[in-house]
Write a structure and sequence with these properties.
Number of domains: 3
Number of strands: 2
Bound molecules: zinc ion
Oligomer: single chain
Distance between the termini: 63 Å
Radius of gyration: 23 Å
Number of helices: 15
Helix content: 25-40%
Strand order of the largest sheet: 1-2
Structural class: mainly alpha
Shape: globular
Order of helices and strands: HHHHHEEHHHHHHHHHH
Length: 395
């Protein structure tokens, strides 16, 4: 009989917190880091705030309060405005994820953020400040006993639809009409953190997200490309580099407009100097603008980031939907003009959706909501009420 004293057994280190596994890693519907944090708190049967106050904040200097074992006001502030960044590319994501990776012994948590893409993804316009979700996905998961979670793709600003259900992502609670923070003290996936309303029941008031076929194709393309980016993240051999993006852009300019960056800007509906700056590595492309280039040239987003673009066939430029054919970011928002326009149309018959009105005046609906939230909610509520009787739920 062997001497038991000398038998070596590889026993994994026990984790301090439950070793919860992330959901759907390596797919377009990979779980987001904030969703994982929410599920981790739920499995420990404590509010998200308690989990983070006890396990995370004491390990980060700036969240420590003036007295021993106390927390700073900054810690409480992060639950309201800044937790969207936990899914992103910077320190706000890195700090909590390194701590939770260790506490749960789950080394793959980094793939629940965009941190692997930090060298090539500028933060501007990248992430939502508040949650967005597909109520039809929630309904299906609930009906089929699938755990409620939030895919990372829902937190990315440029993605406006669920490409499974062809429906707009909702961005405010249908019950209390408020935006929902990614992490609040009592966050629960699938429920409003303020009024606790079930977010999977909003399907009865969904408006069609598409104005026309072009619009539909564009939104599908965007969601698919971003989904592919997320799905490939765990399989990256090394982090993508800015130089690769610059090289890929240079190839695009050469093939589309014989190297003429100004002509390329015109063709892609970009500001005059933008492609030149991208090409020489002076600036990194914002994902929303880069997607326009990908769409027009029928190439994939990930191929630009990894410099794998390959133009074997001749190029046929695809038409962008009209709403993408103007320079949103360089135009100041004229609040008075927009307010006057919305006031004129808020009682129109039949009611028009906010998206339709935003399109007519040439602004992003999100900008309208940001500057004139009350008026926008009034218009959306009237439109949804009007369409409610015609709605046929898609199961
Ligand atoms: Zn969906
Ligand atoms: Zn609510």
């Amino acid at each position: 009989m062997p001497d038991l004293q000398f038998i070596k057994v590889n026993v994994p280190q026990p984790s301090h917190l439950y070793p919860l596994q992330p959901l759907l890693l390596g797919t377009a519907f990979t779980e987001s880091f904030t969703s994982y944090v929410t599920r981790l708190a739920a499995i420990h049967q404590v509010p998200t705030g308690i989990l983070l106050a006890q396990e995370l904040a004491p390990k980060i200097n700036r969240y420590k309060g003036p007295k021993p074992d106390s927390l700073s006001q900054l810690f409480f502030h992060i639950f309201f405005n800044l937790t969207g960044a936990w899914n992103g590319t910077g320190t706000m994501a890195l700090e909590p994820l390194l701590i939770l990776q260790e506490l749960t012994q789950q080394p793959t948590l980094k793939y629940l953020t965009l941190i692997s893409w930090k060298n090539v993804l500028p933060t501007r316009n990248l992430l939502r400040q508040y949650k967005a979700w597909c109520p039809l996905c929630y309904s299906e998961w609930s009906n089929n006993g699938i755990p409620l979670y939030e895919p990372l793709i829902w937190s990315i600003s440029v993605v406006k639809i669920c490409h499974i259900h062809d429906s707009s992502l909702m961005t405010y609670c249908p019950n209390c009409s408020k935006n929902i923070f990614f992490l609040a003290w009592n966050t629960r996936n699938g429920f409003c953190c303020r009024c606790h309303y079930w977010l999977g029941t909003a399907c009865s008031i969904l408006e069609s997200p598409f104005l026309n076929t072009q619009d539909k194709q564009w939104h599908h393309f965007v969601a698919k490309q971003v989904g592919e980016l997320i799905a490939k993240t765990p399989y990256l051999i090394e982090p993508p580099l800015p130089e690769s993006v610059a090289k890929a852009i240079d190839k695009c300019i050469n093939i589309a407009t014989n190297g003429n960056a100004s002509a390329f800007a015109q063709q892609m509906y970009l500001s005059q100097t933008v492609p030149r700056d991208w090409r020489i590595g002076k600036a990194l492309p914002q994902i929303n603008k880069l997607l326009r280039v990908c769409y027009r040239l029928s190439i994939s987003l990930i191929d630009i980031y990894l410099d794998n673009v390959d133009f074997r066939n001749s190029i046929v430029l695809k038409d962008l939907p009209l709403c993408e054919q103007y320079f949103k970011t360089n135009r100041p928002f004229n609040v008075d003009k927009v307010r006057e326009f919305l006031e004129q149309h808020k009682e129109s018959t039949p009611p028009q959706s906010l998206k339709q009105l935003a399109f007519k005046i040439g602004y992003d609906p999100a900008d309208l909501y940001r500057h004139l939230p009350d008026l926008c909610r009034q218009i959306s509520a009237r439109y949804k009420l009007h369409n409610k009787s015609n709605f046929k739920p898609r199961v």
